[in-house]
Design goal:
This protein is of the alpha/beta class and 298 residues long. It folds into 2 domains: 6-223, Spore Coat Polysaccharide Biosynthesis Protein SpsA, Chain A; 227-297, no CATH class. It has helices at 16-29, 48-55, 70-78, 99-109, 137-141, 145-149, 174-180, 193-203, 228-246, 249-275, 281-294, and strands spanning 6-12, 35-42, 60-64, 85-89, 93-95, 113-121, 131-132, 160-162, 164-165, 169-173, 207-218. The strands form 2 sheets. Strands 1, 2, 3, 4, 5, 6, 8, 10 and 11 form a 9-stranded mixed beta sheet that branches. A two-stranded antiparallel ribbon has the order 7-9.
């Protein structure tokens, strides 16, 4: 019996418009690939189950009565999946032609690759950051300054070995997932779970690649943008969890101190801009001052 090429897991939390758009693009660009698609309706109240089932009867729907975290929801899909590759795919994405083919062809021809990530782009075609360095408490704490001081290598249109890739569209070899396990649910509800997964995959001896030919439009943060202060706090909280899990107390301490200093500086800069009449600066001051108060207690 032939296994599906990719088992895709999509989490939908009352984003019916986006998930239908995403699914349409998946089917339109699938070509000869055999896809197994799971949609986890995460305590949806917008009629998602009926709409998806009516439009795409072959899709396997998992319904949650209670809202669960990103890792837990995807693991529900992967526990049932039978594909050669497992894919995380955000509901707020549109798959461009040949994107999945590029990922599968690369992984098929590179047995050392445990995972690969797509090239994420904005709706206007501009690039998004979709891979990163190995996490480091000072590099992560002092972003975005550290990104200017230590820029990422450019792919120049060719596959590039990287430390981790973005989970908006990430494919993991099923045998690599069997080696290291699925997503760590301690990162629920969201953030840094794919960084942790990539770290464990690399630690087990596999490689991670960014594939520029696999282009996927990512609208980005459609849900979390509703609460930016909580979003930023959760990002930093989960990164602290990553350092605590893999590096130990010294790294967590260094991360907290650097995060405190960086957000204090940002608060001052945005405060000056607010005083000079830049209206949008007010919200930035709130976000960064909140992190000054919270950074040492993550």
């Amino acid at each position: 019996m032939m296994l599906p090429d990719i088992s895709i897991s999509i989490i939908n939390t009352n984003n019916l418009k986006f998930v239908l758009q995403c699914l349409a693009s998946v089917y339109e660009t699938a070509g000869n690939l055999d896809l197994e698609i799971y949609v986890v309706n995460n305590a949806c109240t917008d009629g998602s189950t009926d709409s998806i089932r009516e439009t795409y009867p072959r899709i396997k729907i998992i319904e949650n009565c209670n809202k669960l975290g990103f890792s837990t929801n995807n693991n529900l899909s992967f526990a049932q999946a039978s594909g050669r590759y497992l894919m995380l795919l955000n509901d707020d994405t549109i798959v461009n032609p040949n994107a999945f083919q590029a990922l599968v062809e690369f992984l098929d021809s590179h047995p050392e690759a445990g995972a690969a990530g797509a090239c994420l782009i904005n709706p206007d075609g501009s690039p998004q950051k979709c891979y990163d360095h190995t996490p480091h408490p000072l590099y992560d704490g002092f972003q975005p300054l550290s990104e200017y001081l230590f820029p990422l290598r450019r792919s120049n249109g060719l596959p590039l070995e990287v430390a981790n890739v973005d989970g908006a569209c990430m494919v993991v070899r099923a045998s690599a997932a069997k080696d290291v396990g699925y997503l760590d649910t301690s990162f629920d509800p969201l953030y840094s779970e794919e960084v942790d997964w990539c770290y464990r995959i690399r630690k087990a001896g596999w490689k991670i690649y960014h594939i520029p030919a696999a282009q996927v439009v990512h609208f980005g943060g459609m849900t979390m943008n509703r609460a930016p202060i909580g979003r930023y706090e959760r990002i930093f909280e989960k990164k602290a969890l990553f350092f605590r899990k893999h590096y130990g107390k010294w790294a967590v301490g260094a991360y907290k101190v650097s995060l405190f200093g960086a957000n204090l500086a940002k608060s001052i800069i945005w405060g000056i801009l607010w005083g000079l009449g830049k209206k949008s600066a007010k919200n930035e001051v709130k976000i960064h001052w909140n992190m000054v108060r919270r950074a040492l207690f993550l």
